[in-house]
Design brief:
By secondary structure, the chain is of the alpha/beta class. The protein has helices at residues 16-28, 47-55, 74-83, 98-105, 110-123, 139-143; strands at 33-36, 64-69, 88-92, 126-130.
Length: 145
């Protein structure tokens, strides 16, 4: 994310109700899998209402509901996600070095993300880790694997 990020005005961001309706239309048109992503979806107020509503579509046209997250809110929401039908998540994690992680994310707390990943595992979620190789920042971690 750019250091000078300019966010859309709130009135231009879809509400949870609008997102649910959009997902409903996709499912009605034959979409079988939905992935909630974009920024960090779990920081949205009342986001579990969306997962609850979409989870009720599973087995009724929707076959899979997944999430891409930075992991910062996973400890709080992992069990609720599983309870609402999410079985797989993707977690963005670009370094296992606390200082590098903080540099990459600017505000991230590696311990919080790791705790979230452990909570997701305990809740029964399958976890895929996504990493972006960044020259001279985390490339030595990746090359050493």
């Amino acid at each position: 994310m750019s250091e000078k990020m300019k966010f859309l005005p709130k009135e231009e961001v879809l509400t949870l109700e609008e997102l649910k309706r959009l997902c409903d239309v996709f499912v009605e048109l034959g979409v079988k899998k939905l992935r909630i992503t974009g920024g960090e979806p779990l920081i949205r107020k009342d986001i579990m209402q969306l997962f609850d509503a979409l989870g009720k579509k599973l087995g009724k046209g929707l076959e899979e509901l997944t999430l891409t997250t930075n992991g910062s809110q996973l400890e709080r929401y992992a069990k609720d996600l599983f309870d609402n039908g999410v079985r797989r998540i993707n977690v963005s994690l670009d370094s296992l070095d606390k200082d590098k992680f903080k540099k990459i994310t600017r505000i991230g707390d590696l311990d919080k993300v790791v705790s979230g990943i452990m909570a997701a595992k305990k809740a029964g979620l399958k976890i895929k880790i996504n990493t972006v190789a960044l020259k001279e920042i985390n490339d030595n971690e990746i090359l050493n694997l």
